[in-house]
Automatic annotation (TrEMBL):
InterPro entries in the cross-refs: NAD(P)-bd_dom_sf, Sc_DH/Rdtase_CS, SDR_fam
First-tier enzyme category under EC: oxidoreductase
Keywords assigned by UniProt, alphabetized: Oxidoreductase
UniProt record similarity statement: Belongs to the short-chain dehydrogenases/reductases (SDR) family.
Native source species: Mycolicibacterium aurum
Source organism superkingdom: Bacteria
Enzyme Commission identifier(s): 1.1.1.100
Protein name: Short-chain dehydrogenase/reductase SDR
Molecular functions (GO terms): 3-oxoacyl-[acyl-carrier-protein] reductase (NADPH) activity
CDD domains, sorted: SDR_c
Gene designation: fabG_18
Lineage start: Bacteria, Bacillati, Actinomycetota, Actinomycetes, Mycobacteriales
Length: 246
């Protein structure tokens, strides 16, 4: 399966979880992968299995660092065809005890970072007829308890996706988003509930069918990044193991 053959893909959050699974799958399907994340040591482990790939330690909350990452990718591989915005941050907190820094962190990682990367990548994607896949969350299409900042950011990321899709309707570039449900990543399985949390509300987050595998969600990202999805632009896909069916 070489749907991504010849494409250069920049994957954020590539050191673990869905980002790592996507980087590996992109490479399996023929793409040349440039990964970014803060943890260079963990990325080295991931990219040991990705022949021809490259990576860089990047803080996506920094506009300058995001712009440099895109420049480094293009300088290394000569082009950019796919931007997969996967890096994310989620920590549950009671809204009334959230600090300004808590709120800022949610928006900085989950919304500002993708914007900075889209802004830097779009001139190159317009040249190649490339595409963007933004990874939002089911929290971007519905509420989620103790997650006001995260929900606001992920709703915003969907809004950004749709705004870009409209702005670039007449161009070859495509912009889409997916909204994953729960996966067995550290962010989902090792979270700390706020003090005096209502577990009945927390458990509403999960699908009755349980967690999905990161590899299964990565397949949707790979499809949207491929030419098989040439007619898909401005779409928002729920990939939630049936949570939204009821």
């Amino acid at each position: 399966m070489n749907q991504l053959s010849g494409k250069v893909a920049l994957v954020t959050g590539a050191s673990a979880g869905l980002g790592a699974a996507t980087a590996r799958l992109f490479a399996e399907r023929g793409a040349t992968v440039f990964g970014i994340a803060r943890d260079a040591e963990r990325m080295a482990e991931v990219f040991a299995d990705i022949p021809g790939g490259s990576y860089s330690s990047v803080d996506v909350t920094s506009p300058a660092a995001c712009a440099q990452a895109v420049s480094d990718c293009v300088a290394t591989f000569g082009r950019l065809d796919v931007l997969a915005n996967i890096a994310g941050f989620h920590k549950m907190r009671h809204t009334v005890t959230m600090t300004d820094d808590d709120w800022a962190m949610d928006l900085s990682v989950n919304l500002n970072g993708p914007f900075y990367l889209c802004r830097a990548a779009l001139p190159h994607l317009l040249e190649t007829g490339g595409n963007i896949v933004n990874v939002a969350s089911i929290a971007g299409v519905e509420g989620e308890v103790y997650s006001a900042g995260y929900c606001a950011a992920k709703h915003g990321l969907i809004g950004l996706t749709r705004a870009l899709a409209i702005e670039f309707t007449k161009e070859k570039v495509r912009v889409n988003a997916i909204c994953p449900g729960g996966m067995p990543t550290a962010q989902s399985t090792e979270f700390e509930a706020p003090e005096n949390a209502d577990w009945d509300l927390i458990m509403r987050i999960a699908s009755p069918r349980g967690f999905m595998e990161t590899e299964d969600v990565a397949k949707t990202i790979a499809f949207l990044a491929s030419d098989d999805a040439a007619a898909i632009h401005g779409a928002v896909y729920r990939v939630d193991n049936g949570k939204g069916a009821g």
